[in-house]
Write a structure and sequence with these properties.
Blueprint: E1 4-13, E2 19-26, E3 39-40, E4 42-45, H1 52-64, E5 76-82, E6 88-95, E7 110-114, E8 122-126, E9 128-134, H2 136-142, H3 148-159
Parallel strand pairs: 1-6
Antiparallel strand pairs: 1-2, 1-4, 2-3, 2-9, 5-6, 7-8
Helix pairs in contact: 2-3
Length: 160
């Protein structure tokens, strides 16, 4: 059965009217030299019976290693996408007030992986090895392909 993850797409409005989105680059040796398709909304799997929005906020906080800013308006519901792997991803967006988090302080939680695959050797890697503020066009180019829909939905919601 396909897993379900919930995530948060922090965004900020720039003084010139532009928009930037905070995405995470997936950690570990498999993703180390990849760029396009290696970025993601801050997300993770739901605990049994957990409210998806609550899970999205928990996962984003864990992957950033810091508290999220309080929401000055309701988070924007971005709906669901299904990734090529079959995983369902539900997402919300939250405006991050200026100046935003100190990206040097980001310290993601870790996960244990087998590396190389089928080697029997295990290692701890950060779920997210770095984060960056990206324009919507750069985000669409770099994010896991199915998640580009979240960028489109956020832009549509902010235009309304």
């Amino acid at each position: 059965m396909a897993t379900t993850s919930a995530g948060l797409l922090p965004y900020r409005r720039l003084p010139d009217g532009g928009l930037e989105l905070l995405l995470g680059h997936m950690g570990g040796p498999f993703w180390a030299r990849k760029d396009a398709g290696a970025w993601t909304v801050l997300k993770g799997e739901l605990d049994p019976g957990e409210d998806p929005h609550t899970a999205a906020l928990r996962e984003a906080s864990e992957e950033l290693g810091l508290e999220l800013p309080p929401s000055s308006a309701p988070d924007v519901e971005l709906g669901e996408v299904r990734q090529r792997s079959g995983k369902r991803v539900l997402a919300w967006a939250r405006e991050w007030p200026q100046p935003g988090p100190d990206l040097e302080r980001i310290a993601s939680n870790t996960v244990e992986i087998e590396w190389p695959p089928r080697s029997g050797r295990h290692m701890e890697v950060p779920e997210i090895d770095r984060v960056a503020w990206l324009t919507p066009d750069d985000a669409r180019r770099l994010v896991v392909s199915a998640q580009a829909t979240f960028v489109d939905r956020l832009e549509d919601a902010l235009r309304r």
